[in-house]
Amino acid sequence: MEAENEIRSKRYAADISSIREAQVRINSFIHKTPVLTSETLNSLAGRGLFFKCECFQKGGAFKFRGACNAIFSLDDEQAAKGVVTHSSGNHAAALSLAAKLRGIPAYIVIPENAPRCKVENVIRYGGQVIWSRATMQSREDIATRVLQETGAVLLHPYNDGRIISGQGTISLELLEQAPQIDTIMVPISGGGLISGVALAAKSINPAIRVFAAEPKGANDAAQSKNAGRIITLPETNTIADGLRASLGDLTWPVVRDLVDDIIVVEDKEIIEAMKLCYEILKVAVEPSGAIGLAAVLSDSFKKNPAWKNCRNVGIVLSGGNVDLGVLWDSLGK
Known about the structure:
Layout: H1 2-9, H2 16-26, E1 35-36, H3 39-45, E2 48-53, H4 63-73, H5 76-80, E3 83-86, H6 90-102, E4 106-111, H7 116-124, E5 128-132, H8 136-150, E6 153-154, H9 161-177, E7 183-187, H10 192-204, E8 209-215, H11 220-227, H12 252-258, E9 261-265, H13 267-281, H14 287-297, H15 299-302, E10 312-317, H16 324-331
Parallel strand pairs: 2-10, 3-4, 3-6, 4-5, 7-8, 7-10, 8-9
Antiparallel strand pairs: 1-2
């Protein structure tokens, strides 16, 4: 209770109460995803690993939790005009599916370089695709225009307390399914996922460690953590297309205060982790989803004496929407 009160007193965008409320709100819509283990991967890591398979979530990724919570938090008058977002990936599909379940329109601004498999998911779930150029400025400008034309509600992919609260339900499930976990490894991009996970996990168990896994070609969160302020990169270069966003003003304080460390890995390590997930766990995981395993297996984590007591590690496999063309190319490297 003391930990809960301390976190709540910091006035983050979400807390354990809003996360528990989200769990009740979305419980009938989401999958309670399984936790897998592998003695082979435990041996490779030198630790017990517990894989929270959000790749099996509706929409193929954890994003459905936050999108579902946000959409079902709207009152009827707000919802009637629909929702709008700009996203190149899983949030777009998740919002489309959640909007379909509520029976409201979803206007999805998608950059022209988005992975084809993720665009197809948006269309499959009934989202109305509106194309933008590949720049963030273009995405935001077009989203603003759509808002003005429709009166819809903007739901940001990660910088929104309702989204953060929905993602935090992962911790509630994971710590119930594997209570021996003392560490959680989470992919980081805009920070919505890790914010929710950290807020919930550290409220339940203040001693638990929460780590972020980030690609070297998009390591703005690691740079931000080191600098003590938000750093944005002029460009990113990584196979992990879902990890190219920058931290928001709601997610940064949580990352700053509650994330114990950020483990940066190379793309080749991510590709190897994808192979291991496929070959050993028999699970197809997209690059952004496999990065947690890559981080746990990296020398910077395995050989860091500060983390030698991280014995039982929960790894969030955040999504499984793999662009198969990219996958075959990657596995052939």
